[in-house]
Amino acid sequence: MSTADMDADIDLAFVRSLPKAELHVHLEGTLEPATALACARRNGVSLPWGSEEELRAAYDFADLPAFLEVLFRVAGTLRQRQDFFDLAMDYLRHVHADGVTRAEVFVGSQTFLDAGVPIEVILDGVLAAFREAGEEWGIDARLICTAQRHREESTALELLDLIEPWREQVIGIGMGSAERGNPPSKFARFFAEAQRRGYRTTIHAGEDAPASYVVEALELGVDRIDHGVAVADDPALIRRVADLGVPLTMCPLSNVALKVVPTLAAHPLKRLLDAGVVVTLNSDDPPFFGGYVADNYVASAAGLGLTRAELTRLAENSLASCWAPS
Ligand SMILES: Nc1ncnc2[nH]cnc12
Ligand SMILES: [Zn+2]
Questions:
Q1: Domain-located, residue 234
Q2: Are 226 and 250 in contact (CB under 8 A)?
Q3: Relative to the alpha carbon of 288, which ligand is closest?
Q4: Does a structural domain hold residue 326?
Q5: Structurally, how many domains does the chain consist of?
Q6: 42: Cβ contacts below 8 Å, ≥ 6 apart
Q7: Which residues constitute the domain of residue 273?
Q8: Are 14 and 308 in contact (CB under 8 A)?
Q9: Active site includes 136?
Q10: Pocket mutation for ligand 1, best pick of 204, 229, 296 (most atoms within 8 Å of C-beta)
């Protein structure tokens, strides 16, 4: 069998056999439609979708803001410690089967705090699941607390104070939500304060906004960039990101679903990988975008003609880019 033939049959089993880290996944974005509806019933939360079919039909997004509207609504069904525990266990069970040995998971607490859920219900539920999954499956799951950039910087700083009692159990601070109009520089004090407190930092940049947002993110001294698709538009920035070795946590299925790129074949991840950028593959919000982390590897391989060697490199990059002490 020629090398080309061997690479043509890349399948889920091969991808799952590669040890890998998932570095870009939002816990609330792992909520499956059936679970969301069950949580809504149990917690007395009303949703505009009455059935799983109706909810799945809503997963057709014009862009990032349209997706965020649905995500925040669906995430609002999570209210109890058990909801957070079960959600984290379900996600970790799935990605353990995908070959994930380390998961660094975003939790966007502000959505839940708005609904009156106490911070300890969120964090203790999630952290208990991380411990149990570690004991049960040997997976190393860690928590990254994220702030939402559509809010004022003061609210992000308040979040840092709120999570202070969990400082030793939170490995990093991130930032998501509506990118355009909310540039990284808006949160300069927040990221400086997070770094002063000893956290690693990461920020969504260059997903729904131009390369200049990634430049601003680099100025904040973040350790990783989430997405970074727009890096590909600027040759000087490609070189800079490659030279700095700042990893990009890319999410190809998310980028297609949110119309960041028209098709997987048009995704710049292979071009960036070829240019020496530390590219990693991740799922973002798996049930919303049609796939978990291994599905992102398989779909990218099919769309871009990635070889087994390239997929192996992407998996190796993910482990090298995680925040475990080396
Ligand atoms: N793709 C994404 N971009 C920004 N914020 C998010 N929150 C969850 N998914 C997100
Ligand atoms: Zn994301």
A1: yes
A2: no
A3: 1
A4: no
A5: 1
A6: 80
A7: 3-320
A8: yes
A9: no
A10: 204
